[in-house]
Each structure stands twice: as C-alpha cells, then as structure tokens.
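Changelog-adjacent note: as of this version, every example in the card shows the full chain rather than a window. The one below runs 464 residues end to end.
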Amino acid sequence: MVTGRRVLVAGAGVTGRSVAAALVAMGAEVTVTDANADRLAELADTGAALVPGLAEPPPGTDLVVTSPGWHPTSPLLVAAATAGVEVIGEIELAWRMSARLPEPPAWLVVTGTNGKTTTVCMLESILKAAGLNAVACGNVGLPVVDAIRAGHEVLAVELSSFQLHWQSSLRAEASVVLNVAEDHLDWHGSLEEYARAKGRAHNGAKTVVHNLADEWSTRLAAEHDGTRVGFGLGVPRPGELGLVEDLLVDRALVADPANAAEELAALADVRPAGPHNVANALAAAALARAHGVPPEAVREGLRAFVPGAHRAVPVGAVDGVEFVNDSKATNPHAAAGSLLAFGSVVWVAGGQLKGASVDDLVQRVAGRLRGVVLLGADAGVFAASLARHAPDVPVERVAPGDDEAMIAAVRAAGAMARSGDVVLLAPAAASLDMYANYAHRGDAFVAAVDRWRGERDSGPAGGR
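Full-length structure tokens:
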C-alpha cells in the first residue's frame, strides 16, 4: 500500500506519532512536519525524517497524511492539493490498512455532537462482556492505526467531524450519528457542512442507526441505503430500540424472528443516570446488536461500564449543596442535557463558543437557574443571552484577569446556592481560552470545590 512511497505526515501530536510509526513499519519513506519544533523532536524514535514548519510537500511526495485538526486551507495542504498529491487523514489510512488484512476487524462507528465518548465506551464494555477482542479507539484517545496494529477483532470507533472530513473510503459494519447541534462552526463554516461531515460515517454502512428525537440524525440516516434502526426514549415500534416502562427493549435486531422484542437491560443498569445517557446506552446497544451481541451481554456491559472523568461527576457536598463536574459539556447541546437533569442549579459556564449560540439553551433551562457564574472569553455572550431570556436570574462574572478564576467562580456559586441546589460546571463552551483542555478545567473545578469546603469548615460557624 505504501511500501517505498514518500509520505509526508502533517502534525506531530498523538495521531502523527502513531501514523508515522505505522508508515515506517510498512516500509514507507516518511517525513513529519510540525510548526512546534519541540513537539516534532519527540518523534525522533519513529524512524521518520523530521522537518519543522514545511509550507509545501518535499519534492517527490506521493501522499500526505494530515492530523485531523488541520484545516483544508492550511498552506501545506493547499500546496499538496495544487500539486496533485493526495491528502488523507489517519482514519482513511487506518481503513486502508484494515481492508488489506486477511481478516479485517469490524468497525462500529460512533459520531455526533455530544455523547460520543460515553457511547463508544459503553459499546466497548458491551462487546467485551460478549467475550470479543474489542477496543474503543479514535477520538476517544487510542489512534485507530494502533488498534489495527494490535490485532483487535472489533473496533468501537469514535470519530469527530474533523476525522470524518479527511476520509472517503470508510464502510462500517454499523454506524450512528447520535445528534447534531451547533459546534465547530468556525472550522466547517456552517451547520450544514458540519452535519454533512458527520453523515459521512454512514457511507456504505451495513446498518445505519439514528436518534428518533434528533432531526439531523434521522435526516442523515435517511440519505443512506443501509438497514436503518432507530432508537429513542419512547415505546419502540418495529425497527426500533426504546423503553417499555423501566426496560431497554430491542424490536429491530432480534436474533429469533419469532420474537417480537427482546429485553436488553433495565434503567437501573445505565450510569450516569439521565435521559441523554439512556439514549447513549440504546445507541451503543444497537451497534452491538448489529454485530450479533446477545441481550445478556448488553446488560452485563452496561452494568460494568465506568463513566469517564469530567462527565457529570459528583464531587461532593458543601452545606447541603451538591457540586457536579461536567467540564466535558463543551457546547450548548451538551450543557442542556446536564442542566435538565437537575431541578435547581447554580450554573458555572463560559469559555469559547466556537460560533455557537446559547439563546436556545438559556430559554430551555431558565426556570431551573438559581444563579449563574460566568468566566472565559465569551462570558459576555452568555450574559447578553441571560439578560434577554432569564432577566431575573442573578449573574456574576469572574474577571478574566483573575489568577484564580475557578476558585472565584466556585466561591460565587457557593454563595448563591441554597441547601438542595446543585452547583454545576457545564460550561457549554471550549476551554482553551483559559485551560489546556476540558480535563484541566474540570480538575480546577474539583480543586476549587475542595478549597471552598475547607473555607466553610474552618469558618466561624463551621459553615452555614
């Protein structure tokens, strides 16, 4: 496939390292470039040539493999396209590697604006409960090329819109677009282009799974020829997975045609609780069932699933107020699912909105808000929306120059809250204006809550 060919890898991050190592192992002549010379130097052990800051491919380059976040208008990628050099991403490379194996792994693909990581990790747990050699990979952390080189037989693949943009050949055994809401509009240019990138997960898929409650998910599924399976929180019709009282039920992928439905699990088996996570569990179950996994493995896998960090994780109580870290809620759609799970909330929000609007979110949750604390680059956008749609809700903004912004935010939120309330970090925005990533932001919140607890415990009255 690439033996003896000259391949340029654009980007020296986690994906770039794995791609370079895989290409070298396949006999390619590999060059890696990155604007960050220090990061590039960390790939010295891959066997690739390292050249910082290339603006065009070296002479004789046959293929460029780009890291997913690189925009098509990047000078290097434009130069490659102009020169007629093919540009692909790691997912396209991984698919080509996979397709050449004597026994290719099955690809079960998960994408969507929100819930991808939870769903793909639920899926991995279900597949492992069925005794399969399966792994979660892709945008969840493990590069897909590494999962293929490790010999896994089933891949639970989380894909971002960026990753999907740079692939063209993927043909999954089953795929799902969980939902589509405004996100990454600064990269894709419009919601329609963003949705179109998501929909590429379905190209050639044998089974196409869609969310009955999401218009875009259903629309994208209807554009493809695979067997369509819907999921939702209502009683399922034939061809759907859903809920019957407190049971998750399959009426689409039953093993015995004589059975109209099969029970998969109970609501109590789904963690974290909340309607959006029940929907994630149904999506994971649909993909697993498309691969032939029996009902008992769905149940066992959901019970064994351990939720990831920074995803609606309780971090303790202070004076009867619960503090919850959902730093992974990096866009308004994700924040809505978290906010709607609680009755009375002091909301800690803000960051980089990436072109998204918060008006719909604020209107939906206004009746649940005890107060709001804002921080980050787009705090003003949040404040303006709250003034329009929730004018009676107290709002406090943390000064952007505050060296301890999260500590100040937690103090302000704690002061607003009353016993029985939840102080919820669900920023509805990205974190890179203030933090290294959403995990760093979540860690800062947890540390600030611990500090607030200590301040309250050491106060004159030992707290309120």
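Structural remarks: Residues 175 and 430 are 26 Å apart (CA to CA).
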